[in-house]
Specification:
The complex is a heterodimer of chains A (304) and B (264).
Chain A (H helix, E strand, L loop, with lengths): L7 H7 L11 H29 L15 H8 L1 H33 L3 H12 L6 H12 L4 H9 L11 H25 L3 H9 L4 H12 L1 H17 L2 H7 L6 H11 L3 H27 L9
Helix pairs in contact in A: 2-14, 4-8, 4-11, 6-8, 6-12, 8-11, 8-12, 9-10, 11-14, 13-14
Chain B lengths: L7 H23 L17 H7 L2 H33 L6 H9 L6 H15 L5 H25 L3 H9 L4 H30 L2 H5 L8 H11 L3 H24 L2 H4 L4
Helix pairs in contact in B: 1-11, 2-11, 3-6, 3-8, 3-10, 5-6, 6-8, 7-8
The chains are: A mainly alpha (304), B mainly alpha (264).
Chain lengths: 304, 264
């Protein structure tokens, strides 16, 4: 089609923005005004509002009242709520690790194909992302239900009483892994693709076995992809709403559902606001540490 | 290709792809069951459950609502995003990095938090729930992606092309209009498609901002599934899947799904 989408390195190289001394492109700045104002009004302002409302001591004020941290204290001192937070993090971590392990050989294989085959594989991996997450999760509802595919399969193998799969943490992890696998594969594939194949050849010519070459050349060099993918999947898993709500059942409600429940179902807006802020803080922390971590290296920043 | 020639790695990949397709295939196949309960493999084949959807017109209403909101989102996100990308792409200015991080910041916020902040903001300011209020949330979600897509498109353009046009006598505006614009159109369309999908598939924002008249399809399906599961909703989900498949083919034909998600 004419456009070759550049790699991150190429972007860093090509797009050194034109930097004329003391020249401020006023006309160009005009262009960013719409987005800027839009985000300011509908993102920044509401966000600040959230924070102040979470510091309100009333239950359902629309205007923040006397400031107090009581909601945060209530959340952090109640073992139930802390339990929900920990469960959310635990599930997110499990999902991330599982996604990483499953995705690595997939990305590895994909990178070594090309042309039509590569296109089809990409289609298979990315296609499901276009499907509504609710519908994808519903598929797992059908598959994991007692009458579903997997229990039936287990029955034929010999389990007379197949273990209950639906409405468990396991179901949530499976569902989340399925939903976010593509992101991990993409991230790993991008990193693996940038590895100079002659490095592997060099290692092997120096006497390394295929396994050693992989462990000591490929794996370490793919680390940026591993961390990037892991952060993405972890952040997405922590904030996921539909999948854990549907697959976890009534006893596995996570942070995201807690926010919804407190706010919409129980009208505890101020408490809900605090929970939302805690959820944001947790997610933001992981992404932020990643960005700070990789800022020193040249890879991983979209605009430079 | 003989079975024995398929390496271990290839077998593993086959298994993983099967895992990826499993829930999707199950939904679609189960939707054709003639029996009264979800059964896989389907017991008998029939379209009765697709016809049953017609007996539940609220799903068709929600579909219309979702499409309307998604179209609105796509248009606005593309306009904002293209302008934003153009504003960032060419010349450096003080604060450029901070600004670009700011534009991408919604990506770092959980979607339900975005739904939440808008809910609180709207009630404080007095904005009623409507298509537009939901669309605004979706625009916030989608615009960063559009900016990124169009920006990547922009940096891929050989800058000397515009310079050559200027050299041949074109004005700055003409050069932009006749050289740059046609070259970013693929990124623009990709951005629009992506924004549409983000909006259509969203649950977290739409569920916070839902009101009886503005229940999007995803929200309706979600609340239905929360307490019941029957072949009719399976047919609804199957329809969603089939529509996504059609969209997939269309996107792949026009500019490639890989580009949509940033890979080459």
């Amino acid at each position: 089609m004419g456009i070759k989408t550049p790699t991150r390195e190429e972007v860093a190289r090509i797009e050194k923005p034109v930097r004329a001394k003391g020249y401020i492109p006023y006309r160009q700045l005009l262009f960013i005004l719409p987005v800027f104002t839009f985000l300011l009004v509908f993102f920044v302002l509401p966000f600040a509002n959230l924070f102040f409302i979470s510091l309100s001591s009333g239950k359902t004020p629309t205007v923040p009242q006397d400031l107090s941290f009581q909601h945060y204290v209530k959340f952090l001192t109640d073992p139930f709520y802390v339990g929900v937070l920990l469960k959310t993090l635990r599930i997110a971590l499990t999902t991330t690790i599982l996604a990483l392990v499953i995705a690595y050989p997939v990305a590895y294989y994909m990178v070594r194909t090309s042309g039509r085959k590569r296109a089809y594989l990409t289609l298979l991996i990315l296609g499901p992302l276009l499907i509504n997450v609710v519908s994808r999760t519903y598929g797992w509802l059908l598959v994991l239900a007692p009458s579903g595919v997997i229990p039936s399969l287990l029955k034929t193998i010999g389990f007379s009483e197949p273990p209950r799969l639906l409405f468990t943490e396991t179901a949530t992890v499976i569902g989340l892994t399925h939903v976010f696998l593509a992101f991990m594969v993409l991230s790993l594939a991008a990193a693996l693709e940038n590895i100079d194949p002659s490095l592997l050849l060099a290692a092997q010519s120096l006497g390394a076995s295929k396994f050693t070459a992989f462990m000591r050349v490929t794996l370490p060099l793919s680390l940026p992809g591993i961390t990037a993918g892991s952060v993405i999947v972890f952040a997405l898993s922590t904030s996921a709403f539909a999948t854990p709500a549907l697959l976890g059942g009534p006893f596995n409600k996570l942070m995201s559902y807690l926010v919804y429940q407190q706010t919409v179902a129980l009208s505890q807006w101020t408490f809900g606001a605090a929970i939302a802020f805690i959820l944001f803080a947790v997610t933001f922390l992981s992404v932020f540490t990643y960005f700070k971590f990789t800022e020193s290296s040249r890879t991983g920043v979209a605009f430079r | 290709m003989k079975l024995k020639q398929i390496s271990l790695l290839a077998w593993y990949n086959i298994l993983v792809y099967a895992f990826i397709l499993l829930p999707i295939v199950v939904v679609v196949m189960t939707s054709f069951t003639a029996s009264g309960v979800n059964s896989f493999p389907p017991q008998g084949l029939s379209l009765r459950w697709y016809q049953a959807i017609l007996d539940n017109p609220e799903f068709i209403d929600s579909f219309r609502i979702s499409v309307t909101i998604a179209s609105l989102t796509a248009v606005v996100a593309v306009v904002l995003g293209v302008l934003g990308a153009l504003g960032l792409a060419r010349h450096w200015f003080p604060g450029r990095e901070v600004l670009s991080s700011f534009f991408l910041s919604p990506l770092m916020v959980p979607t339900i938090v975005i739904g939440m902040i808008l809910l609180l903001f709207y009630s404080r300011v007095g904005i009623p729930k409507s298509f537009l209020s939901i669309a605004i949330g979706h625009i916030i979600l989608a615009t960063p992606y559009v900016i990124r897509l169009v920006y990547t498109s922009l940096v891929g353009i050989d800058r000397t092309l515009e310079l050559a046009a200027r050299n041949l006598g074109a004005s700055a505006w003409e050069a932009f209009r006749r050289i740059t614009v046609p070259l970013i159109i693929p990124g623009l369309i990709a951005g629009g498609a992506f924004a549409f999908i983000i909006s259509f598939d969203d649950v977290s924002v739409a569920i916070f901002l839902a009101s009886p008249k503005t229940i999007t399809l995803s929200v309706r399906i979600f609340t239905y599934i929360e307490h019941s599961s029957d072949p009719m909703i399976t047919a609804v989900n199957s329809t969603v899947i089939i529509m996504a498949a059609v969209l997939l083919v269309f996107i792949e034909r026009t500019f490639g799904v890989g580009k949509l998600f940033g890979s080459r």
